[in-house]
Amino acid sequence: MSFFFEVLIGGLLSGVMYSLVALGFVLIYKASGVFNFAQGAMVFFAALTYVGLLEHGLSPWLSIPATLVVMIVLGLVTERVVLRPLVNQPQITLFMATIGLAFFIEGLAQLVWGANVRGLELGLQDEPMQWLTDTTGMNVSKFDLVAAGVAALLVTALALFFSRTRIGRALRAVADDHQAALAVGIPLQQIWAIVWAVAGAVALVAGLLWGARNGVQFALTFVALKALPVLILGGFDSIPGAIVGGLIIGASEKLAEVYLGPFVGGGIEGWFSYVFALTFLLFRPEGLFGEKHIDRV
Amino acid sequence: MTTKQMSAAGPSQGANSSPSGGSAAAELNNEVASVGARIGDPVLKLDNISLSFGGVKALSDISFDVREHEIRAIIGPNGAGKSSMLNVINGVYRPQKGTITFRGAVRRDMDPHDAAAHGIARTFQNIALFRGMSVLDNIMTGRNLKMHASFLEQAIWVGRARREELENRAKVEEVIDFLEIQHIRKTPVGRLPYGLQKRVELARALAAEPTMLLLDEPMAGMNVEEKQDMCRFVLDVNEQYGTTIVLIEHDMGVVMDISDRVVVLDYGKKIGDGPPDEIRSNQAVIDAYLGVAH
Amino acid sequence: MLYREAGQFKVSYAKDQQIFPIRQDRIAVLALVAVAFLVVPFVGNQYWLSAIFIPFLIFSLAALGLNILTGYAGQLSLGTAAFMAVGAFASYNFMLRVPGMPILLAFAGGGTVAALVGILFGLPSLRIRGFYLVVATLAAQFFILWFLTKVGWITNYSSSGVITAQQIVILGYVFDTATSKYLLVLGIVAVMALAAKNMARGNVGRSWMAVRDMDVAAEVIGIRLMRAKLLAFAVSSFYCGVAGALFAYAYLGTVEPEAFSLDLSFRILFMVILGGVGTVLGSFLGAAFVTLVPVLLSVTVRFLDSNLNLHIAESAISNLELMVFGSLIIFFLIVEPHGLARLWQIAKEKLRLWPFPH
């Protein structure tokens, strides 16, 4: 029984990692209505820049702010070069543009920093918490717990930001209708710049944590794809939804792999979350937190 | 005499030499008798229709009928539920309460495909044309139910598929001639001005050779000339092909002029039902909608 | 001067509806087809035939398949490679287990199996709209590849997972040279492209486009949404399946799941986007573009290396490729969202007026 809980908690905590990436998606979607396929590439780029700078001799205390600056610049450039010319285009066009962006960033990252797999040390050990193991017999990694804490903090901060501040309201308006937002005088470019910068920062956090966990490698970009089922469950524009969705996906994935996997030869993790999300959509096409779509004819 | 009565009393001699095919000839022979005899039995009956979206009640307990070959207008202030009413007839919305009786068959709701198969066609308030296609292609989609060749036959483009395509093209060209849009047949619809788009939408509906036509504000946004043209088309359709017409319209002049009977809706409820003259003098309707002349 | 329609009157609807209504177009296309069939096999060298033309044709076919689904029916798909894989593996099994199976029939059979799988994964499209459908196709992509690797029966219990494709033998003639394979692929692709064009201009193509543009209105005029969408998935997957079979048999020589990864799905999506969503010509232009860019890049790099002594590492080339594709996609989406096909159309319109400016 405790094994079940161990797997469950392990799954929940890995779900938290998914949520961190999903959070970046939600930010951008909430603020511009764009599904940023390049989020995974941005996470990869952030992690790679950090270790790259470290390799060049910078201390971690300098590296983190430096990478943050790089990510913000990346966000600003993206807004200027990719998003601004495509204002008011249909969602699908913007999505395809972000696919192009993802490929560009991936190529750039590897061109600049090289393609070897690297480790990332954050001073957190991926070891079980001793007292927890002693008391309950469950192995829960310290690392995962810290990651969960970080995610919780981020989510609270962002949720407050969106619902309480004036900028948050402006962001929601922009996500709804670009042209209408422009018409009421919302400074679209500034708003987008802010959002992409914040998303870049979130990508940095996610990149550091993921990199520490799995090493910094190209496969990190595919984490972006995993975020899709998370977003479907949690809703594309819900910040708490990103967490809930992440938890559900992480837990179900791990549980499925451990309990169903042996019956079908293993390797379920690669597709389970997608099939899960798909089945979910069949019953609730708007996702958990989404709004029901009514066509006015 | 209204415009409608004038054109109805028109040349019956020309009836047999009309180029339009199909059931039109039979209808015209019936029409020769008199204007009054033209309008037939109720072909559509709506009983106690109620429709709501979540908490919003769009329609409350609406009942009225539509007789064959007549022009029935639905009028009312904005938000009265007129478009929703058409959507219910058409099957786009399913009412929570009430029944629809169409050609004798009683139903709880309509299915859009069934409606189309039974000869109901419509136009939409915010033009629902297929923007990626040309005018000709849009109108050809209206002939969709008349084309039976499978996709395999179409892929090879021989025999039935080819023949059907050409036959239906000929029919569509008749509609294009009727609505005078020959000059724009290859233009992508997105490039057309609003008035022409409305006409193309009407063409698409007509291409299906419907027995009942639902028109949602066909003259919205048009100037006087365009409205006259549209009126002429609507009347011609009604007279030449005997199509029953249910029409939502805001222009009172048009409504009073061309419709046989009028239904008035306000806040989802029916507040008037009868010939135009009766409606014009109905106090409830005047208060809600028509206003008082100063 | 050259490209004038003056004097070409269409006196029947049949003439008006032909695929190439302008005489100059007809001549040009016939010439192109003649060159492709009669000249290239004799003039082209082995490298160009086997490494450029054959994959170009195969990818055009796959792009055509994806275009039918995404371009005409408006359902975005990231599972193209998976459907290609189904076609390849199914063809392999037909050849393996049915004695005396003609290989062309095996290809068609592979396509049919792919079509059935396509319908299965297309079922969600009846409930799920627009963007969310990407999930269904991603699920298809990951699940199908996992399935093909796990189920031993499909790979004939091969230990390495890599199966050699059988030889292509038709009526006793063995297709083992680059030239013969090229002609076979060319023939199949030409026939299927013609079929696709016919479907696109026929009723089924119009109903797909209607569903893409406004499905409520499509329903109202009597188009059955379910039938149209599932048919789109089926036909699209059939095309991808045949392309996959050709990919394995006429290009790779092996039937392996790794060749049909998500990366390939993206590649084909790029071809469709760059070439022009919703056009038959676009599939070919996009495939040509995506196939040629890596070649151009390596040529440029070699040129820079030998003439300007600018040394660029091998690994850098593949990264540059990613960057070039990425930026091209963004560029096209901004400048001409309808892709190369639209640019071609504009060029033709300019040509109509040439040498006059307007």
Note down, in words, how this protein is organized.
Chain A has 297 residues and is mostly helical. Chain A is 74% helix and 0% strand. Chain A has 12 helices and no strands. Chain A has helices at 2-32, 39-55, 60-83, 91-113, 130-136, 142-164, 166-176, 178-183, 188-214, 223-234, 239-264, 272-283. Chain B has helices at 3-8, 24-31, 35-38, 82-90, 112-117, 135-142, 151-156, 160-179, 194-207, 224-241, 252-258, 276-280, 283-290; strands at 42-53, 56-67, 71-75, 97-102, 105-107, 120-122, 212-216, 244-248, 261-266, 269-274. Chain B has a 6-stranded mixed sheet with strand order 6-7-8-3-9-10, sandwiched between helices. Chain B has a 4-stranded antiparallel sheet with strand order 2-1-4-5, with helices on one face. The longest helix of chain B is centred in the middle third of the chain and has 20 residues, at 160-179. The radius of gyration of chain B is 19 Å and the shape is globular. Chain C has a domain at 22-259. Chain C has 14 helices and 4 strands. The chains are: A mainly alpha (297), B alpha/beta (294), C mainly alpha (358).
